[in-house]
Amino acid sequence: MRLLRRQGLTFDVINYSFLAFLAFITLYPFWDSFIVSIIPMGEYLSSSLHLYPKSVTFEAYTYLLSMKELWNSYGVTLIITVAGTLINMLLTIMAAYALSVEELKGRRIMMFFIVFTMLFSGGVIPTYIIIKDLGMMNSLWALMIPSAINTYNLIVLRSFFQSIPSELEQSAKIDGCSEMGVLFRIVIPLSLPGIATITLFYAVAHWNEFFNAIFYISDKSRYPLQLFLRGMLFENESTYSGGGDSPYLLGPAIKMAALMVATIPILLIYPFFQKHFAKGAMLGAVKE
Amino acid sequence: MSVTKEQLLALPHAESQAPIRSEKKSAWISIWRQRYLYVMLLPAIVYYVLFHYLPLYGATIAFKDFNIMKGILGSPWAGFKHFEYLFALDKFWEVIGNTLIISFSRLLVGFPFPLIVALLLNEVRLAVFKKSVQTIIYLPHFISWVILGGLMYNVLSLDDGVINNLIKSLGGNPIGFMTDEKYFRSTMVFSMVWKEFGWNSIIFMAALAGVNPQLYEAATLDGANRWQKIVSITLPCIRNTIAILLILRLGNIMEAGFEQIFVLYHPGVYSVADIIDTYVYRIGLAEGRFSLAAAIGLFKSLINFILLVIANRITRMMGEQGVY
């Protein structure tokens, strides 16, 4: 008996340490980059492991925040995140609700046509040609409309809606509720974890917008944040130096500061959604 | 969209008569009664037609000599010309090889790992610890590859990255994780696993939560230890989830991670890093050879589809429920 307990204890110690180690290697790159963004160049060069900053400077942030391109791309990303997510939610909720009504004629065939698009797609080139033909090149619409509905999110939301007992909807209708009334007063309030989860997924996708932007946006003044960031991180930074202001010395710090500026909003909203999405994603996953 | 007073008044009336007339009601009347639902569906239908079915039709340019002035309809048919050209191209096979190598390595490392993490997390009794670890390991899933690529450069850099500094202080030679052809693919695979293992563990956690706790209690009474419980209760109970996830992953085997590779690769590692998607991007958009690029895209879709069907068939033969 004592041996068994000791075995259990050894397992627990190893298990907790291993999981803590996983958490550490997940967080450390973020922490290291944050430190690099706030320490002076001298300290960056002198020590190899930056566990904590010995001295702090916000030079990199001041330099970065004075860049017009940053504000431009930040604006673009904010617009597509807010407007794009609104479009996403409006279209996804409406379609998911309609498709969740069991008596809807033609529901099965429509679901088939929707799920089919997950298996077969025309590929990026035909899509590119169609978006070009629709006149969306270099327009922010190209970053919102072609991704207006994510099929996986639609299916998840639909299964949320379906899990609401239909008696509730029936009795609301008998009490004089219209379809819209049922949707807004019963279905949506009861599906808030699902709606919160999907809102987060869509918002993050827009915030991280990169794929569509490299295809459809070539005008630098309409670059979303991620394209601006790619320019800063991976292309010759002299394009952004703009003058004699020794960008070389600030190099790594500015890069990491840019990275932080793009990451912090996600770090800020993520905890608010987390309790919902773990539940939401699970429910969606199990139901599918 | 607001609801008028008339509609509110009219509905209960219609509703109360429904049961009596339902027998004779034709399909058209029920469609008319559901007109608001169809109106709600309309934007989605337009969306799927425009951005999914039209491109599906547009994929026919793989069999045409696409000319941007003439459009998809007006361009002349070319038969299998582009496919023949493609299959004779050495670069094409190199790209397929890279895609498969990266994808299968990712499956090999990246599929079991989240399952192991979920099993370990499931053994944690301390709720605060469990939640904190989960919060942290889900995080990278929400961060873009551009940002994570920047982090990787910072940590893996040849001159002053933490990892190489550690290697140097232990007396080893620095490793060009992202510049050396020998290491590039492994770096990609491990960083993909690093980004997604936490998130991928969620679905296993969900499956684990669904296992009947009485089974464990009974096993404890019978004197089973943790390992025996995992092997004879947990795994059999979640094998259907494992099977479905495996099928879905196999159906995506041709997706080797466009964004990550596109952000991190450079001409020095093209020979090991070029995957189907990056190659399509370069020859399609950079060189403007639309038909050829569409042919590659179509080929990719087809392989994915075939793999999905095969994997589904195998799981059904093993007595599990498939995806369809």
TrEMBL record, chain A:
Residues 74-273 form the ABC transmembrane type-1 domain. Signal peptide: none annotated. It is a multi-pass membrane protein. It is found in: Cell membrane. InterPro entries: MetI-like, MetI-like_sf. CDD domains: TM_PBP2. The chain crosses the membrane at residues 12-31, 74-99, 111-131, 143-161, 182-205, 253-273. Keywords: Cell membrane, Membrane, Transmembrane, Transmembrane helix, Transport. It comes from the Bacteria. Belongs to the binding-protein-dependent transport system permease family. This is Carbohydrate ABC transporter permease. It comes from Paenibacillus spongiae.
Automatic annotation (TrEMBL), chain B:
It comes from the Bacteria. Residues 96-311 form the ABC transmembrane type-1 domain. The chain crosses the membrane at residues 36-54, 100-124, 136-156, 197-218, 230-248, 290-311. CDD domains: TM_PBP2. It is found in: Cell membrane. It holds the Pfam family BPD_transp_1. It is a multi-pass membrane protein. Its main location: membrane. Keywords: Cell membrane, Membrane, Transmembrane, Transmembrane helix, Transport. Signal peptide: none annotated. The keyword Transmembrane helix applies. SUPFAM superfamilies: MetI-like (SSF161098). Belongs to the binding-protein-dependent transport system permease family. This is ABC transporter permease subunit. It comes from Paenibacillus spongiae.
